[in-house]
């Protein structure tokens, strides 16, 4: 099973990398699989690689659903 999650790009870094945020956790990821990444946009993250873009509304809906799953008892 694979899991890819939306993350927000906080800063574009040199050498095809970016700093992203997921619920307060910040991580450096590889952006080599995308043509260009911009600060403030959401990308789909899979095992440390940005594999696609996602619009902000869809990213926020997806993250909200993940939050519901985590908080479900």
Question: What is the secondary structure topology, with strand pairs?
Answer:
Blueprint: E1 5-13, E2 17-22, E3 25-30, E4 42-46, E5 49-54, H1 56-71
Search tags:
single chain, elongated, 73 residues, 22% helix, 1 helix, 5-stranded antiparallel sheet, alpha+beta
How large, in whole angstroms, is the Cα Rg? 12 Å
Global mean pLDDT: 93
| Main sheet properties | 5 strands, antiparallel
Distance between the termini: 23 Å
From the spread of the alpha carbons, the general shape counts as elongated
Order of helices and strands: EEEEEH
Counting copies of identical and different chains, the oligomeric state is single chain
> Strand arrangement, largest sheet?
3-2-1-4-5
DSSP E strands, number: 5
SS content category = alpha+beta
* Strand residue percentage: 35-45%
Summed up, the helix count is 1
Helix content: 10-25%
**Any low-confidence stretches, pLDDT <50, length ≥5?**
none
